[in-house]
Amino acid sequence: MTHALVVFAHPRPDSLTAATAARARDTLVAGGCTVDVLDLYGEGFDPSLLPDDEPDWADAAKEYSAEVRAHMARIAAADEIVVVFPVWWFGLPAMAKGWVDRVWNRGFAYEPSTLKGKRIRWVGLAGGSAADYAVQGLDEILDRQLRVGISEFCGITDATVQLIYDTLTEPQVVDVLR
Q1: Are strands 3-8 and 34-39 parallel, antiparallel or unpaired?
Q2: Does the pLDDT value for residue 14 go beyond 90?
Q3: Region 99-128: what's the mean pLDDT?
């Protein structure tokens, strides 16, 4: 049986981001997956990278904080990771970026990677239109950063980035796992 980790980052539990994460969870469960939902705000995750969780370039086997090790275990248990986030300032919000900075760490996510063979889907909810993002190449920048800069760097080759546009003018929950 496939196990998925659905991660979402939004301060409001009644947000479109939370509803989209819930739809992703429901779709995965309906498809026969077991699902672990990680609400970064709801669980009180601290996105600040402090010395306990900073990579040690002299020691790839460094033991990180208990909070980070618990998050690493949740990722390790998943075959598939779905990260749902609002696109703020044309990138990940600080909470999600801090999660990557702290948890996707040396000796776990890279040098060496324990994430090879996993699948990841990045789902961003963007306020602007697809045309606006395309004109500036912002969709391509997000894709490259998330798919190549994070996922592939960490050994995950089955990585996709999906942007849901016009969420400010046409807010609706869509099936993101089609």
Answers
A1: parallel
A2: yes
A3: 95
- Residues 22-34: b if buried by 16+ CB within 10 A, e if exposed: bbbbebbeeeebe
- How many domains are there within the chain? 1
User: pTM (2 decimals)?
Assistant: 0.94
State the helix-helix crossing angle for 94-103 and 66-77, rounded to 10 degrees.
90
Mean of pLDDT over the chain: 94
Question: Which of the four pLDDT bands, split at 50, 70 and 90, describes residue 42?
Answer: very high
> Residue 45 sits in which domain range?
3-164
CB 38 within 8 Å of CB 5: yes
Residue 88 lies in a domain: yes
Rg (CA), the chain: 16
Contacts with 35 (C-beta within 8 Å, 6 or more apart), sequence order:
3, 4, 5, 6, 25, 28, 29
